[in-house]
Specification:
The protein is built from 9 helices and 8 strands. The protein is α+β, with helices and mostly antiparallel strands. The strands form 2 sheets. Strands 5-4-3-8-7-6 form a 6-stranded antiparallel sheet, sandwiched between helices. Strands 1-2 form a two-stranded antiparallel ribbon. The N terminus and C terminus are likely disordered. This is MarR family transcriptional regulator.
Length: 265
């Protein structure tokens, strides 16, 4: 992507934004780290201009350095998450959520990953006697939730290494998994099987079963769950009762989402 440099002071802000976006987009066709020369060549910037922009992006957490090269930092996902938090995906999901909730008589939610937290972007609640109150926009730590574990399990290994090394894992209940090695094994198992169930790790009595929502490229962009109470199900019973229904809803949401994806995107 070559940048049109423009002229005049009135273009300074837009030109800087365009150049910064050009630098970010230079990574999209090549997942391996890029050298300064490669970024400059891909964007049409001179080396000093490319270096200044890369330095700014590193300081803001959108790009990381790898030896003598640069790579995107997972924080760039915040840009995509901002889109997912808009009406498009929740609107697509809502009728399928309502059907799952009707069939299982349980609450159904969708969340995206934002750093080490999940953000709820859609929800169909069913009244139960639980102390946890959730709504669209609510945030929770990712590690003790089924939604969060599905989303974490889809992250690259280097991202997970940093997360498991730096994050704090507090026990919300006596059952919360706080051991880093055990959590890593659990995330690997979730990645293999394609779903997660969490039994009373966030709140005593709370069960949750979650599956991913993937875009047309196969990347996990969100997760949906059904939550229940131990007075109604064991974790195994919730999987038996809800997994097929939840997966079917996920497939239907994905089919619409893939059709909504712009051509050439």
């Amino acid at each position: 992507m070559t940048v049109d440099h423009g002229s005049g002071p009135e273009n300074n802000v837009l030109t800087s934004l365009e150049r910064g976006l050009a630098v970010l987009l230079s990574f999209e066709l090549d997942r391996s780290p890029l050298t300064l020369s490669e970024v400059a060549r891909a964007t049409g910037l001179d080396r000093s201009g490319a270096r200044r922009l890369l330095h700014s992006l590193v300081l803001r957490g959108y790009v990381r350095t790898e030896r003598a090269a640069y790579a995107l930092h997972p924080r760039v996902l915040e840009i995509g998450n901002a889109y997912l938090a808009s009406l498009a995906l929740p609107e697509i999901a809502q009728p399928h959520f309502a059907e799952v909730s009707r069939l299982l008589d349980e609450s159904v939610s969708m969340a995206v990953l934002d750093g080490d937290e999940i953000v709820y972007v859609a929800r169909v609640p069913v009244g139960r006697l639980m102390s946890l109150t959730l709504s669209v926009g609510s945030r929770l730590p990712a590690y003790p939730t089924a939604l969060g574990r599905v989303l974490l399990s889809a992250r690259p290994e280097d991202w997970l290494d940093r997360y498991l090394t730096s994050a704090s894992f507090a026990p919300y209940t006596a059952l919360t998994v706080t051991d880093r090695s055990r959590l890593r094994r659990e995330l690997a198992r979730i990645r293999r099987q394609g779903w997660a169930v969490v039994d009373q790790e966030l709140e005593v009595g709370l069960l949750s079963l979650a599956v991913p929502i993937r875009d047309a490229s196969g990347a996990t962009v969100a997760a949906i769950n059904v939550s229940s109470h131990t007075s109604r199900f064991t974790s195994a019973e919730l999987v038996d009762a809800g997994l097929r229904t939840l997966r079917l809803a996920s497939e239907r949401i994905e089919s619409v989402l893939h059709m909504e994806r712009p051509r050439g995107a």
